[in-house]
Design a protein that fits this description.
The protein has 482 residues and is α/β, with parallel strands linked by helices. The protein contains 15 helices and eleven strands. An eleven-stranded mixed β-sheet has the order 1-3-2-4-6-5-10-11-9-7-8, sandwiched between helices.
């Protein structure tokens, strides 16, 4: 059994035909992941007891002739901002280094009920704040495609484990592109569902109005199956949607003839030439599939970066106020006063990027600046969302780049926050609008670096998004079609 090449289909078939057991898969996947982790630092910790117990439940169900679930035996990694009960939950921060999760996130409960096997927690940028996975307190993640480069962030560990083959699928979180950009950099599929499509209960909050949970996989079909299991209303999350969940795999037949594709002109102005060439090659492939392509405009795109970094930092400042050393975080010792304890705990515990965002967010929420910055940013967010609503009156999907460039070198942008923030310029708009978006591999540069193509659809139209991505994959993902 080649663990690195497993898919949901091959696992299901192997289990049904008794080629291997779920315990075989779990044991080999754990051993392989632990050995390979020295190269990438993609996992922060493993949970072998939980994985083997889940595998035994699958094997017992099969032995009794029961249905073990649609994800039976599938090894999954979970970004370390999503709670897995009794497993270390650090958010890649020293403040939570020894914290054990007291309950399971709703997404975790649904995955394990479907038979999934959780191997461990994936590394990420501290509190999901970053675009390179270099902000983890426990060391950066290295891109398995090229170990000298970043995997993207903040869900870099989750993308890396799938690209490396140490998990079949994984969970990440996306606030402004933290699933799509790492997926693009690592050459895997990454899905950001509609805001409210997947419960946020058990997801550590960064920016509550922007945070999503979504899957990484090596194929669109596998990503769709994982989302199918997680999606749906959750009474424990007041922001989860009541909208019915479509059968995401029913329409994956390769037929997208007549689908209307919009190309936002604002997204194609700042691409590196090689990345742009691959995206345009992918667009020509979609035309060969029978899609009609037209240029559209999303005129408020130019304000997206400013808008996003006001809203997300304001919400981060509020959400991170709870990490003060009083309750469950590490506490600074030998503080003379309560104020010193707060100051030293937060000063020593938070990394540079978290401190930067807390300070920016506190500033824009402060007296005299709230209306000038935060309220204005929310108004601009409405305009950006309206741009997409008007676009979807004309087209079925928007196709765009994920990033202006492929994966960059470790340390290349770490000391230049503005350049780091600009790497998310094409993903932030979809997050602000709350629409479903995904990255699907679109070929590689001359240096062998993956480039992702972004597909965006209207609210709760994930099925159309998956149908287009799957058809694109079937003809080679842009890499062998022109």
């Amino acid at each position: 059994m080649d663990v690195a090449s497993l898919s949901i289909d091959s696992i299901s078939k192997g289990l049904r035909n008794r080629v291997f057991s779920a315990r075989d898969i779990a044991g080999q996947a754990l051993a392989f992941a632990q050995a390979e982790n020295e190269k990438t630092n993609a996992y922060l910790h493993f949970c072998p007891e939980r994985a083997l117990a889940a595998a035994d439940r699958v094997d017992a169900a099969l032995a009794h002739g029961d249905d073990p679930g649609p994800l039976a035996g599938v090894p999954i990694a979970v970004k370390d901002v999503i709670l897995v009960k009794d497993v270390r939950h650090t958010c890649a921060s020293r403040l939570l280094e020894n914290y054990l999760a007291p309950y399971d996130a709703t997404a975790i409960i649904r995955l394990e009920e479907a038979g999934a096997i959780i191997l461990g927690k994936a590394n990420c940028d501290e509190f999901a704040m970053g675009s390179s996975n270099e902000n983890s307190a426990f060391g950066p993640v290295r891109n398995p495609v090229d170990l000298t480069r970043v995997p993207g962030g903040s869900s870099g560990g989750s993308a890396a484990v799938v690209a490396q083959g140490t998990a079949v699928v994984s969970l990440g979180s996306d606030t402004g592109g933290s699933i799509r950009q790492p997926a693009s950099f690592c050459g895997v599929v990454g899905v950001t569902p509609t805001y409210g499509r997947v419960s946020r209960y058990g997801l550590t909050a960064f920016a509550s109005s922007l945070d999503h949970i979504g899957p990484f996989a090596r194929s669109t079909r596998d990503a769709a199956r994982v989302l199918q299991v997680m999606a749906g209303r959750d009474p424990l999350d007041s922001t989860s949607a009541f909208a019915p969940v479509d059968d995401y795999t029913a329409g994956l037949n390769g037929n997208v003839r007549g689908m209307r594709i919009g190309l936002p002109k604002e997204y194609f102005a700042h691409l590196e030439s090689e990345s742009g060439d691959l995206i345009h090659r992918g667009i020509r492939a979609l035309e060969k599939l029978g899609c009609t392509v037209r240029e559209i405009s999303l005129p408020h795109t130019e304000y997206a970066i400013s808008c996003y970094y006001i809203i997300c930092t304001a919400e981060a400042s509020s959400n991170l106020a709870r990490y003060d050393g009083v309750r469950y975080t590490a506490r600074a010792e030998n503080a003379a006063t309560l104020s010193d304890m707060y100051r030293n705990t937060r000063g020593n515990g938070f990394g540079a990027e978290c401190k930067r965002r807390i300070m920016l967010g506190t500033y824009v929420l402060s007296a005299g600046y709230y209306d000038a910055y935060y309220r204005k940013a929310q108004q601009v967010r409405t305009l950006i969302s309206r741009d997409f609503s008007q676009a979807f009156e004309q087209v079925d999907a928007v196709v765009a780049p994920v990033s202006p460039f492929p994966a960059f070198k470790l340390d290349e942008k770490l000391d230049d926050p503005m350049q780091m923030y600009l790497s998310d310029i094409f993903t932030i708009t979809g997050s602000l609008a709350g629409i479903p978006c995904m990255s699907v591999p679109c070929g590689k540069t001359a240096q062998g670096l993956p480039v992702g193509m972004q597909i965006l659809t209207n609210h709760f139209h994930e099925a159309a998004m998956f149908r287009l991505a799957d058809a694109f994959e079937r003809i080679g993902g842009g890499g062998a079609v022109i």
